[in-house]
Design brief:
single chain, 277 residues, alpha/beta, TIM Barrel, 8-stranded parallel barrel, two-stranded antiparallel ribbon, 11 helices, 12 strands, 36% helix, Glycerophosphodiester phosphodiesterase
Length: 277
């Protein structure tokens, strides 16, 4: 089986994004080995950023350390040195050999290990504009600047993304307007149309719009092609997240391919690619 990089359907290529740097469902999150593998192969891969006490960013999803690491408490109250001493946890909660990385650690690795020209690393900022100050932005720019051409910065707070990206002019950006409970507010075709129009206005320079795949399919069920609307504005669409591969998610993936999404985020790229062949 070939490496799980993308699916092709009716002449359209849809990339498989390695969510939290997982190639397969059994992988732990955010290991350097998988990130470098993805970049070497030319994959789309995603990691998350959380601000720590020394005003840099840690490669972690949660604001709390307890679930994903051997630490405890808030990332925002933990120093860089303390974070580097912590180990990541596997899917079963057992500590693994890999340690927590900071953004600068990851960027140094990318400088030292050439990436495939098609590789793209998504930095998903998990906080909001209130967590950014001058030092945090400066530290972000110093880390990302040398490897920005291999990255895209995304998040749900357009203001935060704009503030960080302004310090790294060569860095592309994306925007995720999918907030918790949004589907409860989208009931009619006009609701979905207005939602997409608002997202495009809010993030005029974002090249990728990230949407909960269930929202994409819900719009489709109402006769609204939000993928087509975003494409018409010159943007691309990432549909997130296919977590487990089963009959239902395979059927959903086939519909997403028919709608011509540009990328599907999944915790199991290898399993999903295998199920689609």
């Amino acid at each position: 089986m070939r490496d799980p990089l993308y699916l092709e359907s009716d002449g359209h290529r849809t990339w498989l994004k390695w969510h939290r740097a997982r190639r397969m469902i059994s992988d732990p999150e955010f290991t350097a080995t998988r990130i470098l593998e993805a970049m070497r192969l030319g994959a789309s891969v995603e990691v998350d950023l959380v601000v720590h006490a020394d005003r840099g960013c840690a490669i972690l999803h949660d604001l709390h350390l307890d679930r994903g690491t051997t630490g405890s408490g808030l990332v925002g109250e933990t120093s860089a040195d303390e974070l580097r001493r912590l180990h990541l946890r596997g899917n079963d909660g057992t500590p693994i050999g890999d340690r927590v990385m900071l953004l600068e650690d990851l960027c140094n690795l990318l400088e030292e290990n050439p990436a495939h020209p098609e590789a793209l690393l998504q930095l998903d900022f998990k906080e909001d504009l209130s967590r950014l100050d001058k030092l945090t932005i400066e530290n972000f720019a110093a880390a990302v600047g040398p490897v920005a051409d291999r990255m895209i910065l995304s998040g749900g707070d357009a203001g935060a993304i704009a503030a960080l990206a302004a310090a790294v002019p060569s860095l592309g950006t994306g925007y995720d307007p999918t907030y918790p409970g949004v589907l409860d507010a989208l009931r009619t075709p006009d609701d979905f149309t207005a939602f997409v129009a608002s997202a495009l206005r809010t993030a005029p320079t974002a090249t990728i719009i990230y949407l909960d795949y269930e929202l994409v399919l819900a719009a489709d069920s109402k006769g609204v092609d939000i993928v087509g609307a975003i494409h018409a504005d010159g943007r691309r669409v990432d549909a997130w997240t296919i977590r487990n591969v089963c009959a239902d998610t395979v059927a959903d993936t086939r519909r997403l391919l028919a709608l011509r999404v540009d990328q599907i985020t999944t915790d199991d790229p290898e399993g999903l690619a295998g199920a689609m062949t």
